[in-house]
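[Q] Does anyone have a clean structure-token version of this?
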Amino acid sequence: MNLQQGMALTGKYTKRIFDYISSIRNFKDHYGKYPYIDLLEFKNLMHLSEEDYSKFGIFRVRILDKAIKEINKYSDFNVRYTPVKKGRKIIGLTWQISKNPKSKVIFWNTKECNTSGLRL
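[A] Here you go.
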């Protein structure tokens, strides 16, 4: 994880999703298709059980949408996801990841930091 971007992200699920997105960002370039992850596998990555957020709508609002909004705002990624259905049930997610040229990535200026008053 880029340290500067990681410090800008505040939510625990946001950081986990950002790590996952960072690991699959070049998937489409290599395989020619968007990366897919099973919903149960994704919940395991988020350290959630199968019963946690059993309704996808609640999971989407409380975890996915909040995290994606924060990632798009504070990182150099533009992330979107598409739910994959089998019948009426959501079984997985596909990810569309691109570079975000208008990101608000915070870069720390070490010259402006005054550490002379700190005791170690």
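[Q] Thanks! Anything notable?
[A] The two ends are 28 Å apart (CA to CA).
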